[in-house]
Amino acid sequence: MNTRPDMSVTIAGVTFKNPVMTASGTFGSGMEYGQFVDLSGLGAVVTKGVSSVPWAGNPTPRVAEVYGGMLNAIGLQNPGIDVFIERDLAFLKNYDTRVIVNVCGRTEEEYLEVVRRLQDQPVDMLEINVSCPNVKEGAIAFGQNPDALYRITKKIKAVAAQPVIMKLTPNVTDIAVTARAAQDGGADAISLINTITGMKIDIEKQAFVLANRTGGMSGPAIKPVAVRMVYQAAQAVSIPIIGMGGIASWEDAVEFMLAGASAVAAGAMNFHNPYLTRDLVTGMENYLIRHGIGAVRELTGAVHA
């Protein structure tokens, strides 16, 4: 008799062997981490953001350590969709894991071009990074304006061959509003949170540490904010949620699922512990065994007063 819990989860018709994914921008396409963890043991590899043409990213310095995490202002540096298909997707074909491609752009057409190029590629889902600055709207991120978020979601869904996840920014007044805008636009799922805008100043030089002045804050310090936003989004929408933001242990992953997430993604802490994703799978499975829970999906939204 098999007494091991069922670790599989299904999101928008796609079944994952377990709920552990990688957060975009922290794992590349898995090439660097393959020597530490078996990518086939993960629910999914979520790739670094890919754009229609190569992006050079922001000037250096663009990474800084801060209390409880890090700031980054990489600027979504990537080689563009052509190299991504030839190199990254070709590499990921070698592993028995789901592939989710993170898509970025500065205009609606840039997003749509990448989505079209991926229509016939071996990709299971698309994750749309709506924290990108919308150059036609004064550089306000697509995800900060509910109307813009609704429009771009609807346009992407009209051309996408794969289910669409909209990755939401936490830099908004009410996450429930943007979560509903994504759902109303036709999103199959949402993921949150992306990084929180932060800043660090060198007091001896009396200068900004990052060339970009501000950067995205990630790491354990943002986890309570992320858990709260996942819970609020789960109360506002009926589509699945992938939770992320400061996950450093299996306990953190369980917390996100109890708050309402159907799956979790580990990000910045991969830099600290390259075995983290593997440890999450093992730790969550042991938790289910200890508590006599038959399937990991039973954790989703199970928090109670």
- Tell me the CATH superfamily: Aldolase class I
Strand content: 15-25%
CA radius of gyration: 18 Å
- Provide the spatial order of strands within the biggest beta sheet: 3-18-17-12-11-8-7-4
The CATH architecture comes to Alpha-Beta Barrel
Mean pLDDT: 95
What this model shows, in words?
This protein has 305 residues and is α/β, with parallel strands linked by helices. The chain has helices at residues 81-92, 108-117, 146-159, 175-184, 223-236, 250-259, 269-272, 276-291, and strands spanning 9-11, 14-16, 20-22, 44-46, 63-66, 69-72, 98-103, 125-129, 133-134, 140-141, 164-167, 189-192, 196-199, 201-202, 207-208, 214-218, 241-244, 263-266. An eight-stranded parallel beta sheet has the order 3-18-17-12-11-8-7-4. Strands 5-6-16-13 form a four-stranded antiparallel beta sheet, with no helix packed on it. A hairpin with a 5-residue loop joins strand 9 (133-134) and strand 10. Helix 3 (146-159) runs parallel beside helix 4. It is globular and about 55 Å long.
Topology:
Elements lengths: L8 E3 L2 E3 L3 E3 L21 E3 L16 E4 L2 E4 L8 H12 L5 E6 L4 H10 L7 E5 L3 E2 L5 E2 L4 H14 L4 E4 L7 H10 L4 E4 L3 E4 L1 E2 L4 E2 L5 E5 L4 H14 L4 E4 L5 H10 L3 E4 L2 H4 L3 H16 L14
Parallel strand pairs: 3-18, 4-7, 7-8, 8-11, 11-12, 12-17, 17-18
Antiparallel strand pairs: 1-2, 5-6, 6-16, 9-10, 13-16, 14-15
